[in-house]
Amino acid sequence: MILVLTSAGDDHADQVVGLLTSAGADVVVFDPASYPARASVEIGLSRDGSTRRVLHTGERRVVLDELTSLWYRRPLPPAASPAHPEQVRAYVEQECLAVTEGLWDGLGCLTVPAPKSVLDRAGRKPYQLEQARSLGFELPETLVTTDPDAFLDFYDRHEGRVITKPVHGNRFEADGEWLGRFAAPVTPVDVAHADALRLCPVIVQAYVPKEVEVRVTVVGKRVFAAEIHSQVSNHTRYDWRHYDPGVTPIGVHELPEEVAARCVRLVERLGLTYGAIDLIRTPDGRHVFLEINPNGQFQWIEAATGLPVAASIRDLLMNGLT
User: Fold this and answer.
1) In angstroms, rounded to a whole number, what is the distance separating the alpha carbons of residues 263 and 266?
2) Given its phi and psi angles, is residue 179 left (phi above 0), alpha (psi -120 to 50 degrees) or beta?
3) CA 35, CA 254: separation in Å to the nearest integer?
4) Nearest to 314 by CA among 18, 75, 90
5) Confidence class for position 241, pLDDT limits 50, 70, 90
6) Span 77-85, average pLDDT
7) DSSP letter string over 241-279?
8) Can you list the domains of the chain with their CATH numbers?
9) 57 by DSSP, 3-state: which?
């Protein structure tokens, strides 16, 4: 039995669940946001040393100890009944989160990409960079700081050819509007407002010349590399996530064997079974590491290249690491 944790409207999960069902797998899809209002959990520890874990989804009774794999896709946190006062809801949701996260972490079956605690650690960019460097990846010279003087020294040392990007999140809400923060070159206006760095940390990196950007999706031991011709459009020149449909070509990338092997080792080092890695291929043929998304999207890669990422996730969930 395979359990998929995600929320409504997840096309990526729907695609893989369809493939799993077609292959004859027994799949249960569950969103923890329905707990405790519409679902329940039982965890029983007996004197004989056995543990019983049962999930009641409202439609099905799932004995979690019988799971062969778990896909921690994109679940929402538990949501208390709106009948509770606001302060009570916050307490209930905190308690329920402790139950569910402890539950998923303790199942002992294959978890894709990893338990939540491992995902959280793997998603921290300073930690990623250290692990990637230890495996032999080339990195841009990097500074993480809230010190304006350190930033200005870095800026001068690289003659102004630097970019900044957020340490963790790239979206936030302000006055009811969602705002985005991507990698961007440092401008004279930024330098003039360097004192604002004291308010929030930022990642500063030396600009790396690009031939193409490379998205490497690792599924278990399998590696799928796509090249993004980000330099053909001003929208994507510094961050391909400003994708310009119809203008930015994407195709299959021939990744050198040693780089592909290093990508697999990085995913393993971070405790993951899946990861989406961003690299730069420089004009002189070097592959430079930028970051890894432990739970990155993949359908856009499939649509552009035909690389069978979803089918590989299906195989991983059904057969484990092979």
Assistant:
1) 5
2) beta
3) 45
4) 18
5) low
6) 90
7) GG--TTTS-EEE----HHHHHHHHHHHHHTT-SEEEEEE
8) 2-112 (3.40.50), 141-206 (3.30.1490.20), 209-306 (3.30.470.20)
9) coil
Sheet with 110-112, strands from edge to edge, namely: 27-30, 2-6, 69-74, 110-112
Which amino acid would we find at residue 244? D
Q: How is residue 91 written in tokens? A: 């307490």
Alpha-carbon gap, residue 112 to 272, rounded angstroms = 7
Q: What is the 3-state secondary structure (H, E, C) of 164-217?
A: EECCCCCEEEECCEEEECCCEECCHHHHHCHHHHHHCCEEEEECCCCCEEEEEE
Closest CA to 290 of 180, 200, 207: 207
Q: What integer pLDDT is reported at residue 248 of this predicted model?
A: 77
pLDDT tens digits, one per residue of 259-272: 999 999 999 999 99
Number of other residues whose CB lies within 10 A of the CB of residue 183: 20
Q: What are phi and psi of 55, to 5 degrees?
A: -115, 125
| Exposure letters 135-154 (e unless 16+ CB within 10 A, then b) | eebebbebbebeeeeebeeb
Q: 231 near 247, Cβ under 8 Å? A: no
Taking residues 141-164, what's their average pLDDT?
Answer: 95
